[in-house]
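the four lines:
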Amino acid sequence: MAARTTSTGASAARERLLQTASELFYREGIHAVGVDRIIAEAGVTRATFYRHFPSKEDLVEAYLGVEDANIRGAFDAAEASGAEPGQLVGLVIEGLADDVARHHTRGCPFINAAAEYPDPESGVRRAVAEHREWFRSELEKVLGAAEADDPGATAGQLVLLRDAAMVGGYLDGWERVRPSFIAAATRTAGLDR
Amino acid sequence: MAARTTSTGASAARERLLQTASELFYREGIHAVGVDRIIAEAGVTRATFYRHFPSKEDLVEAYLGVEDANIRGAFDAAEASGAEPGQLVGLVIEGLADDVARHHTRGCPFINAAAEYPDPESGVRRAVAEHREWFRSELEKVLGAAEADDPGATAGQLVLLRDAAMVGGYLDGWERVRPSFIAAATRTAGLDR
DNA sequence: AAAGAGATAGAACGATCGTTCTACTTCACA
DNA sequence: TGTGAAGTAGAACGATCGTTCTATCTCTTT
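prediction for all of em together
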């Protein structure tokens, strides 16, 4: 058995590796999960691991890439749903709330990763910075289309609120944080008028 | 040379150990800093380390205890300053902003620690939960004295805003986040009326 | 004067870290 | 048909992890 079995062109072993690592990194932290754990749970050999990822840090960056792609996909889906710009802002807020409730119950993958990588020049921190900048500008775009006043400032505040929601949802429980998040986000976005 | 040299009754070696570890843990992350690093930079022997801290995790908990005590001290100072309850809320917000700008430029010690400790039953996570609960109730007390409406809900929202400020200050730069934080916090606390 | 706690110094424990290596097999494609 | 990439299997590298140990010295307290 070997090689490219998936439709995307990526090898099956690589995808299993990436998915297993993503779950472990998110649930237990990055430094806390060793290469041995990952290859054992992915059912793959060390040699196969290093064939696809030159080092563990490359795998970490790929993990953040998966998280980034997931969120971009959610945005694309929302925009492709044919909702009007005015509605879209509300959909985004609801989507973020739903994401924290369902998938990201251990906090934000990017915030958590940054906690473990102090060097701003590292590949991991670059990935975090790029993701945050994309997210901010995407919000600004949506807000601009909905003709909100000062989309730039509002987008910045919504980024902060999402950070707060993910951290608070993890440490205090989402049911305690959700009302505050919804109220603050809708008011910030100007949806309460 | 030996033993208790400080006025507080704690040994000098223990205090050097704790201060050194606190700086390293905060700046570089907990799992990333080994015991060897700590004892080397503290100028202390392994045996001395384990005399004062049964395990590394005890040192981690002591580190969070130091951070907790610092913030409690700041609150006590603000309350002892003789400011009126109405002013106190504003002082607290300014104090938080000042803290992020000066001391906590690598994020929140408790949020960062929680990112590395997934088990909610662990001593570290318990310390995080206790600190957050104290902070929330302290805010509620101050807001209640200032006769804000719904001190409970407002305190919860201010906790979220502080989380956002510390995360955003670390990852996006405090100068970008500060205006949003000040605006949102003063409005949430009802100081803009 | 005796006792004990706190410090120093340094060797050593087994376990795990991330990484590299050789040897052999299997499949896709030119 | 043969070349090469992708897979399995497993030994081994040096480094570091957190922890334990013995041995000796110093100071404070009784």
